Amino acid sequence: MNEDRREEERPAQAALRRRHAARAESAAARAAALSRYVEEKGHRSEDRTGDHPDGSADDRSDAYADAVWKAAHAARTAAQALAVLAEGAPDPAADSRCARNAAASAAQAAQMGQRVDADAEASARASRAALNASQAAAAAAGARHMGSDEDLNADADAAERAAVTAAEDAGWIVPGEKVPSVETGVRSTEIMTMLHL
Description:
Helices cover 76% and strands 0% of the residues. The chain is an all-alpha fold. The chain has one domain (2-194). The longest helix is centred in the first third of the chain and has 47 residues, at 2-48. The radius of gyration is 18 Å and the shape is globular. The model has no long low-confidence stretch (mean pLDDT 87).
């Protein structure tokens, strides 16, 4: 009887896997694009900045370097979450946690995009949209429904789409442009702790 029930659940779990995976992939792509954007913006700023006796150039350079590092770390963490999602059998609870973590990392990268854009209006909107996507993904992965609630998943899907659109409006993502590759590196203890693995 239990085996029959598991067989019945597998198609639904596979469908949920595809849904959570699509959202995680989108968030990881946002984070990767942002990492590249922040890095390129930092390089352009360095090229324009001369030496100033008051040390202001060094301060700006340090601020950009910090943003570049944090955006790259966020992109790497999002890529790790996506990789973990693909490793096991479909499990709505675990899959939704991976999507949640990818969205949270993309929101962190968005904060760095907003920083290097000096809080430009479009960037601030995109950062808020990324935060909304992270919160919606967290709600979908919550302990009560564990990735299986249709309404919460729909909200998370819609929030992710809105985050992509806002990122495009801010110039962080260029539609049709290839997503930058991100090395996952050594899997961080942070991501494994968040995934309860």
